Structure formats: C-alpha cells, structure tokens
Amino acid sequence: MDFLKDLFKFLMQRKKFWLMPIIFILLVLGVLIVIGGGSAIAPFIYTLF
Amino acid sequence: MKILGISAFYHDSAAAIIQDGKILAAAQEERFTRKKHDPSFPSNAVSFCLEYAGEELNDLDAIVFYDKPLLKFERLLETYYAFAPQGIRSFIRAIPVWLKEKMFLKRLIYEELAKVGPFNKKRVKLLFPEHHLSHAASAFYPSPHEEAAIITVDGVGEWSTASICHGKGKDISILKELQFPHSIGLLYSAFTYFLGFRVNSGEYKLMGLAPYGHPDSEEVREYIRMIKKELVELKEDGSVWLNQSYFNYATGLRMVKDKKWEALFGFPKRKAEAPLEQKHCNLGMAIQKITEEAVINMAREAKRLTGSHNLCMAGGVALNCVANGKLQEVGIFDKLFIQPAAGDAGGALGGALAAHHIYFDQERTPAHPERDAMQGAYLGPEFSELDIEASARRNKARFTKIEDFSALCDEVALVIEEGKAVGWFQGRMEFGPRALGARSILGDARNPEMQKKLNLKIKYRESFRPFAPSVLAEECDQYFDHQGSSPYMLLVKPVKEERRTELPEGYHDFDLKEKLYYQRSDVPAITHIDFSARIQTVHKDTNPQYWELIDAFQRRTGTGLLVNTSFNVRGEPIVCTPDDAYRCFMRTEMDYLVMGNYLFKKTKQPDWKEKSNWKEEFVLD
Asked: Which one of B16, B31, B167, B579 counts the least CB within 10 Å of its CB?
C-alpha cells in the first residue's frame, strides 16, 4: 500500500497522469511474472536502469 | 543530529554517517564483500558506519538514499515510449527487474536495514534526494568554500546527466541541467566500450591510454572531426547533443551500434584483452580531448552563471583527472575542490549532507578557509595492533615489530631504495577509488624497472597503465608544474621540464612498448608517456605516517616522492583488513608488507598454499 500511495503522490506532483495506464498494465504483468516465477536478471552492460 | 547516507543497487554501493554535519565515517561495500563495484545493499558498510559512530539505526534522525527511484522509473518508461517500437527486447528484459525489485526500493531498503539491526521505520525518516543534488552536496558541503559554483557530471542519474549549481552557505540552487540521453559520461563510456574496456570501470584505463595517441597526427585530428560531425555536438554552454542514431544505450543492450561505429572509424570494436594498436590510442586521445573541451565549456558557463571564484566538482566524470588538470590550467576559477569519492559511492555522503543542510535546514560553516572537511578521505575502518597480530597468527606469518615508527620508516625507506615493492597498510582506509597512502603499494619512482615490476609482477595488469606519485606537499613544485595541493590524486600535471630527458627523433612513431619503456625523466616510474603525472600531495596533518615515510626516503635519497598504487591486484577491490592485505602480499611478488608498526618480509614467510587458482576469484576489469 505504501508503494501505491507513493506512486500516486509522485504522479500528482509530476503531473504525469498519462503514465498511469502503462504502470497499471505493468503491475498486472508483474503479478504474472511473480506467479510464473520468471527470472529477473539485469541484462545490461551499463546500469542505466 | 545523526544521518546515515546510502548508495546502492546500481554500482559502487556505499554508506556514510554524519553527526551535526561532521563526517564521521564512510566506506564502500566492495571493500567488505571483496566484489569490485559491488552494487548490493551496503549492509557491511552500514554496520561499520553505525559501529564507528556508536549508534543504532533507531537512534538516527534520518536515513538517506542517494537518488529518486520513481523518477528513474519515469525516465525508463518515457524513454521506451519515445523510442518505441525500438527497444522492445530490452524492455521485456528490464521490466521484470523493476517490477520485482527497483519499484519497491523503499520496502527493499527497510528489509535490508532490519537485517542490519533493530529498526523501526516509523521512528526514522527515509529520504530520497535527487542523484545530482547528492553529487553536488558531496562536492560543496565538505569544500572549504562559503560560496562556490558546482558542476556535477556523470553517466546518468534520474533524468540529469550533468548540472551546474550554485552553493552559498547551506543552500544549493540548481541553475542548469543536461538531461538523458545526452550525456558526457555516457559518451566517454561509449568509447570505453568500443575500445574494448569494461563500461563503468574501464574509463580510467581509456584515460591512461589516451596519451599514447600521436598528438600531432592527422588521424587524431580526423577522429576529432568525425566525432564532432557525426556523434556529438558540443555547445558553448557545456551541454552536448548526442546523435542517437549511433548509440544504443537508451533502449538497447549495448552502448553503441557497433556496425555504424565500425563504418565511421574504419575498424571494428576492439575485443577485450586484444592487442592495442596506434589507432586505438589515437581514438582514445580524440575522445579525451573532446571530453576536456566539454568540461571546460561547462566550467565557463558555471562561471558566467555564478560569477564565483571557486568551483566544486563531483560525478564520475570528475574522476577524469586529466580533464581536471586542464581545467585548472585554464584558470577560469581560482580554487577547485573535487570530491575524492566523486562517483556514486560519494552519493551516500552527499545525500546525508544534503538532508542535514537542506531538509533539516541546518547552518553550515566551512571548517577551515583552506582545508576541506574530508579528513584526507581517511574515513574507513582501521585496525589495532591486536587485530594485526591476530591476523598474523591466523596466517602463521613471521614479522618484526619495530616500536619506534621513525626507525620503521628508515628501514622501509632503505628497502624501497633497494628496488623493493612494499605494501603499506596504515590507519583508516580511504573512501573513494584512490589509494592515498593508507592501503597502498609503494616503490622507488627513480627506478627504471619499477613500472614494469609493479604492473606485471604485482598488479598483474596491462603494461601500458601509468603509476601515480605521492609527493611531500612541500616538495611538489620541485617535481611538477603545479602550485598548491592535490591531496586526492585528482589532478594530472606536467613533470618539470628540467627533470625530463630529451625525446629521440621519431618518438611518436615508436610502437606502444618502445614508448612505454623509454626513460622520460629522472622519476621514470611516475612519468606518463606525455610527461604528465597524477599527483598526490602528502600532508603531515592528514596522514602523518605516510608523510614521515616519504620524508625518511627523501633524507636518504634526496627524492621526496614515491610511486603509489592501490593495494590490490587487477579486478580486486583495494584491501580492507589485515587478512586481505596479507593474502594480497603473499599472492604477488611484493617484497615487504608494513601494517602499523609490523614489518613482514616475504622471504621469511611460510609457503603460501591456495586450494584454487586465486586469479579466477576476480573478474578482470
């Protein structure tokens, strides 16, 4: 819940409401990944992300 | 007021603790875990900081993480959106990392802190300053200046890749920012990648390679012209615009588009460990010159915006000591202070200081008009005589204890004069990437064989890599064209003309090895190929033991200067404990080890047996 509160406050402050649907889809995707137990290994040569 | 700063999860995790604005302790996690550039949560570094300060987590007023994860996530999403449908592969691979970990960083930090010790998240504030504000704070607040321009330059934080700020008293105002994907740090990293070095750790190798380029050659000029025409536009205000059609880092899995770079420069990406050719050196020289130009442009803009006489710098690019040396020579600012832990590790310290002065609105008075508050960067753990003796017993080591430190220095000066390499382990470990005489390997800079010996038999690293001098602060102008101090090895300056030897005809056409082994001065081990040296001035007030040793060497030989390289082998973090030091001493061809008042002679030690090939422990950087 803490995270959702922080996220909502952040989007309000930055006025980036258009990111909301993308984040929602990602969260659904995230649940699927967690259920599927997929690997989350950072693939990058540069830790930009 | 006690504040703990943390940087983690990207590279070079670290922790720092301050009390009422005074820096008590700071250390990088890699030194404890023995994994170079360790990005994991710095549990060991946090424990060390708390123990040093005599505090528990619940006693703290705040814990500060050095950047804003949600803002970084915003950048990630917007970047993919802007580049779509390009980058779909990297998107699919990156998003799970975020969804599993990085979006829930706050929770992750709470969980990790709870493992360190009793922790009530309702009692202690958790703050998230911006990445470049943390860098700016790490540069300005410990500086001796009441007022200063501040430049931060690195690869990327959240959105910013560079900033110009103005620090006054306790306030820092951000005047200008350069935003992703345009970045001087990423441009330099792209060349690091193309020239076959590891991104995020090989940048300093590229800087060391650059002087092997032919300074007057048509090829270097042509590379500079091509880079400026195709890859990067340098603006007068110090900002840069990178032509993204050549780069892949924004949404891809590599730094650059290899084929396009190959077509542009006429040769393929150099493979790691492949032989270095003149064209690689020339390209290195070209990008180094362009970086210097960008940094100097940025400094001019900072001067225009602030009118200040003082400049403070931080961010990974501020570790480019060649650019720093040029910046000082240009004389835009009268005084320059560079945070010794300029990379992300320093963000832990900067975050804590920013919280103290900005969030908690605490006044700031520089400790001394001339001296910074970094205490020589000796902010890490130190070990007692008992610890050293216990380590020696564990390792069945044989040693001599010399009670009189002056007598010990005389003895060590003698063996250094005889051409021996000495591991020097004294006092608190350094914070930041440089060894500054607390965890160092030392040698005689006059010895023509010393560079080869240190590179190939002790550090096991590439032969082209230069070594830095530690010089008595009072003697610096006897050897280098440099007035003032350089305590953190962050300025490259020329060796004095009268100390140089004349170059033979056609020197610039020599191959790399011939150039390398040509004796360029009377202190050849620290004179780089272009007669430059990365100076560390040693001050009696910040490191009296190291000063005393160099002074003893000067009394014996007339030379107040030693070669100083970090106490580690290639790919290994700098040693932290007496055990680390003894292990490194025994694995290499180092001749002596000095820890506190204890002297270890290699020939007297029992055989060192390892179960496995220890070199495989470390990933080559």
From this structure: B579
Complex confidence, ipTM: 0.72
Portion of chain B with pLDDT greater than 90, in percent: 83
What superfamily would CATH give domain B385-604? Answer: Carbamoyltransferase, C-terminal domain (3.90.870.20)
Asked if B98 and B73 touch (Cβ cutoff 8 Å), the reply is yes
Which residues are CB-contacts of A18 (< 8 A; sequence separation ≥ 6)?
Answer: none
Residues of A in contact with B94 (CB under 8 A): 42-44, 49
Q: Does the CB of A19 have a partner CB in chain B at under 8 Å?
A: yes
* Per-residue model confidence as pLDDT tens digits over B147-186: 999 999 999 999 999 999 999 999 999 999 999 999 999 9
CA nearest B89 in A: which residue? A43
- Residues in chain B with CB shorter than 8 Å from the CB of A39 are 96
Half-sphere exposure of B439 (CA within 13 A, CB side): 31
Instruction: Kindly determine whether residue B155 and residue A48, on different chains, have CB atoms separated by under 8 Å.
Output: yes
Question: Judging by DSSP bridges, how do beta strands B592-595 and B598-601 pair with one another?
Answer: antiparallel
Strand partners, B178: B162
Chain A residues close to B107, C-beta within 8 Å: 2-3
pLDDT, residue A33, reads: 65
What is the per-residue pLDDT for A35? 67
CA distance B335 to B144: 10
What's the CATH architecture for B1-130? 2-Layer Sandwich (3.30)
Contact B49, B59 (CB under 8 A): no
A contacts of B98 (beta carbons < 8 Å) = 26, 49
Angle between helix A19-36 and helix B69-83 axes, rounded to 10 deg: 100
Instruction: Quote the CA–CA distance of B486 and B335 in Å, as a whole number.
Output: 12
Tell me the per-residue pLDDT of B102-130, one tens digit each, with 9 for 90 and over: 788 899 999 999 999 999 999 999 999 99
For B147, list phi and psi in degrees, rounded to 5. Answer: -145, 140
Q: Give the confidence band of A44 by pLDDT, cuts at 50, 70, 90.
A: very low
A3–B104: do the CB atoms touch at under 8 Å?
A: yes
Dihedral angle at the C-alpha atoms of B400, B403, B404, B408, nearest 10 degrees?
A: 20
In chain B, the residue whose alpha carbon lies closest to the alpha carbon of A16 is B74
Inter-chain contact B255–A38, Cβ cutoff 8 Å? no
**pLDDT classification of A36: cutoffs 50, 70, 90:** low
Question: Which residue from B387, B386, B375, B378 is spatially nearest to B428, judged by alpha carbons?
Answer: B378
Picking from B74, B106, B254, the nearest residue to A16 by CB comes out as B74
Check: CB of residue B108 under 8 Å from CB of residue B41.
Answer: yes
Contacts of B78 in chain A (CB under 8 A): 19
B452-501 pLDDT, tens digit each: 889 888 888 888 888 999 999 999 999 999 988 999 999 999 999 999 99
| Contact status of A18 with chain B (Cβ, < 8 Å) | no
Q: Where are the domains of chain B?
A: 1-130, 385-604
A40 pLDDT higher than 50: no
Whether residue B106 and residue A3 make contact (CB cut-off 8 A), yes or no, is: yes
Please tell me if residue A8 touches chain B, with a CB cutoff of 8 Å.
Answer: no
A40: closest CA of chain B, how far (Å): 5
